[in-house]
User: Fold this.
Amino acid sequence: ARAFVLYHFLPFDRSFFGCLRDPVFLVLFVVSAVPFIRVFFYVVLLGLLVGAGPPDEYQLLQYIMMFKGMQFLSGGVLMALTGGVQYYWCVNDLQRHTCNEHGPGTGFGYVMGAIDFFGSCMLVWVGFLILPYSTRSAGLRKVDDHERQEPWLDEEDTDSDEDGVHTKRCCGWRQYVGRGGRLRALLRYDLVCFFISAGILFGLEGFRYHQMQQDGEA
Assistant:
């Protein structure tokens, strides 16, 4: 079951357009696109990746990139379009509206929205933390200079594998220094966007609570 799901959803020998011809991939793709449900789907998928030992680097990178892309499409573009349509239909021609009941944001509660938002971010961060411990099942064609040497590692704590990449053992797994390459910049970008979004969210909720307090006193 593990090999079946991983091969059909994160194959090594198919492009995205090749995956579109696979009905199993289409089913899993639709499930991964549904807000709130996708968090539990990617939890299971991450468990399948690390369940049998160190995950494959290619599949873990595909996991991170597909998760972030799906979060942008389903949680960003799709939710924005859905909110626009809901706002249009909740306002009628009689200058009355039912947006409090059928407007944007009424379909999901605060708990479901928080699980979807924070879960999507935290799962990607967990994937980045596991990335240095992933293995290259298909071998390595070329090693970049930044992967060959990291100054913060002590010589006695490191060794080199057959590809010349410095490694360090931790918790029974071998840590490959520099694994992930330039994709690590995505983690810093994601963290900055998360703290900015969370700050704006808490600021708006604080302002809304202050306004409600003033209206109650009046």
The longest strand covers residues 166-170. Strands lie at 159-160, 166-170, 173-176. The chain has nine helices and three strands.
